[in-house]
Design a protein that fits this description.
There is one protein chain. The chain has three domains: 84 residues, Uridine Diphospho-n-acetylenolpyruvylglucosamine Reductase, domain 2 (2-Layer Sandwich); 164 residues, 2-Layer Sandwich (Uridine Diphospho-n-acetylenolpyruvylglucosamine Reductase, domain 3), CATH 3.30.465.10; 114 residues, Alpha-Beta Plaits (2-Layer Sandwich). Helices cover 34% and strands 19% of the residues. The protein has 16 helices and 15 strands. The protein has a five-stranded antiparallel beta sheet with strand order 12-13-11-14-15. Strands 1-2-4-3 form a four-stranded mixed beta sheet, with helices on one face. It has a four-stranded antiparallel beta sheet with strand order 5-9-7-8. Bound molecules: flavin-adenine dinucleotide (FAD).
């Protein structure tokens, strides 16, 4: 069958769109990475049924599938010479009300839209990643995305409870926490095969030996077998066996995600930033380790190169109001707490600790405007703390 006729058949069978023209394929030949590869076709499913038909079609004709949400991946995850499945156009619904701090969404829901919706209940999705105004839940799950608060909240994997997926043969499988793995191991079909093969692949000793140390939170190095090995049945006191967190970070290579149930966290009540100034970068790195026992929500480095770029930039020079002298590096430490007085005390203890260790030369604290009001039109107010 001629290529275009082949895709015509798919188009006639689904509610969504199939694009095979050169211009559309060119548009989808790139993501936010340096890579470029022309897909054979692009398909925009409207619903789960479309996804099933798309996967069955790809299976039958041996066409690789490249799931795609907002396409902000930086390592070429969304480019390839197969068929791009773009969930960003139609699969964009929030599917449930908030229940027990959880919510069910389609993969094309944008992170900022989700947070706008759940903030009515003082909740938030914990991963605050830089591309929040466009990246989507399917893509965050695909990449196991994490933002500056990973010290406190871990990664996306730690906040995905359940997934509805389409497997490579077009069957639908729901993955969630299991009280009883035995039944799944006996199940017939592809889903049962998946449980059996993963169960037999977990060899806890070699995983412990060869996977990166669990304290390294921000990493995505292959499939998360080490995550499973740390749960039941291998670790009796661990969480129940659940393939949903395992699928996070699989970059669209294992399943096509059609729905996810997400765990939300309360919006922090009080927060502030301590901007520690350093005369050299190495000292700022030493200070990072020293600050960890103070339970920061985030520690972000601003190096000299970035600081220099802000000097002659009209917009960014306004954001330099808190900078003292000419630091070679600044560590921005964010603290969260429920009580303002406790938060202030923690900030002072942290600063004293750094001063005693001879780390840093200035420690301005920046509080947000809700608490202190804006100063000269600035969104943040700073007070100085210099050694
Ligand atoms: C300037 C910039 C800053 C960034 N900052 C961060 C950051 O702070 N933290 C961070 O973690 N990342 C960051 N990223 C990377 C990227 O934005 C995130 O990983 C984001 O979560 C990807 O979301 P997306 O919707 O663009 O996904 P996409 O890029 O579209 O897809 C990501 C992966 O998910 C898979 N996928 C998408 N939908 C599905 C589905 N329905 N079923 C199965 N698989 C699917 C794709 O195949 C792909 O492998 C940044 C990128 C840029 C360009």
């Amino acid at each position: 069958m001629k290529t275009n006729n082949l895709y015509k058949k798919l188009e006639q069978s689904i509610a969504g769109e199939v694009l095979v023209d050169l211009a559309s394929r060119r548009l989808y030949a790139t993501d936010a990475s340096i890579y470029q590869e022309m897909p054979r076709a692009v398909v925009r499913p409207k619903n789960k049924n479309d996804c099933i038909k798309i996967v069955k079609f790809a299976h039958q004709h041996h066409i690789p599938l490249i799931p795609r949400a907002a396409g902000t991946s930086t390592a070429g995850q969304c480019v390839g010479n197969g068929m791009v499945v773009d969930v960003s156009r139609y699969m964009t619904q929030i599917l449930s009300e908030i229940k027990n701090n959880t919510i069910r969404v389609q993969p094309g829901v944008i992170l900022d839209d989700l947070n706008d919706f759940v903030s009515q209940k003082n909740l938030i999705f914990a991963q605050n990643i830089s591309t929040s105004n466009r990246c989507m839940m399917g893509g965050m799950i695909g990449n196991n995305a994490c933002g500056s608060h990973s010290l406190l909240y871990g990664t996306t994997r730690d906040h995905v409870i359940e997934m509805e997926t389409v497997l490579s043969d077009g069957s639908v499988a729901r993955f969630g926490p299991l009280d009883e793995l035995e039944n799944k191991l006996k199940q017939a079909g592809l889903e049962g095969d998946i449980y059996r093969s993963i169960y037999h692949a977990i060899d806890t000793e070699s995983i412990k030996k060869h996977y990166p140390h669990p304290e390294i939170i921000r990493r995505n190095t292959g499939y998360a077998l080490d995550y499973l090995a740390n749960h039941q049945p291998w670790n009796k006191s661990g969480k129940p066996f659940n393939l949903a967190p395992f699928l996070c970070g699989s970059e669209g290579t294992l399943v096509l995600l059609t729905e996810a149930t997400l765990q939300l966290v309360p919006i922090p009540k009080q927060k502030l930033l301590i901007c520690v100034h350093f005369v050299d970068l190495v000292k700022s790195m030493r200070a990072t380790v020293a600050m960890l026992p103070h339970n920061p929500a985030a520690i972000e480095l601003i190096d000299q190169r970035i600081l220099e770029c802000t000097k002659d930039n009209l917009e960014q020079s306004r954001n330099r109001f808190w900078i003292q002298g000419n630091p070679r590096a600044v560590l921005v430490i964010e603290l969260f707490d429920d009580e303002p007085s406790v938060l202030e005390q923690r900030a002072q203890v942290l600063i004293q600790d750094l001063q005693q260790r001879g780390l840093g030369y200035a420690y301005p604290i920046i509080r947000d405007e809700q608490r202190l009001g804006t100063t000269q039109g600035r969104a943040w107010a700073a007070d100085g703390h210099t050694q």
